[in-house]
Amino acid sequence: MAKLYISLIVAGLLFGFVCLSFSAETVVFKGKVIDAEGRPVKGAEVFLYDNNNIRRPADFISSKTDNEGRFNMAVPPGKYLAVSRLRSSEKYGPLLPVDKHSGEPVEIELELGKEIAYEFKVSNLKEAAEMMRKNREDFFKLSGRVLDKDSAPVKDIYAFAYTGLEPSEVPDYLSAWTDDSGNYTIFLPAGEYSVGYASAFPLDRVNIYKKITVTGDNINLDIIIDLNKADKEAGAGEKK
User: Fold this and answer.
1) What digits encode the pLDDT tens for the residues 13-33?
2) DSSP character for 65?
3) What residue ranges define each of the domains in the chain, with the CATH number in brackets?
């Protein structure tokens, strides 16, 4: 019996040591999730990834934000890519157009002894386009239509423009969903862009249509995108 008590005491001490060790090796990452208008977002989650492949299950996921949009999570120290998402349902998989996303992943470095706080702003496709339209006085207008191989308008596609060498999950600039006539509009500052289209948000498949230069001389540049022709011309520019 005495040996049993001693074994239980030793096991308890070891368990306590493991818990203390784990506690000492975690860092608190907390913050807030807000919407496009700066209001707190309830029910959002923060996802941390230890590498740039964010199209996989996250290494760490926060609990859902409270009524004030706040989150708090304890994770091992290290460098992470962080994004916040708010789903309209409990389903997994690609986000729906009404789901909200914080956009390009943010690099967060969590160090022992330091408490890091960050504020994420989430929006869905329509809200992101509205935010860009609010600033259209400083932008040039890019408009056009999305057409299929028979030159019929395609609804519920969006056009995008990005400035980097590689497409990001959330484009730098994007239109709202195309209407019944396949029309889209993007407001862009002067510069060089790769323009394309996609059917999901964030991007699950990137189709680059062409590269353009936006200046004051082509404020109403009109691009008609033939989906069949674009698939052939995209070639290496298409990313799956």
Assistant:
1) 444 444 444 445 889 999 999
2) P
3) 2-121 (2.60.40.1120), 125-237 (2.60.40.1120)
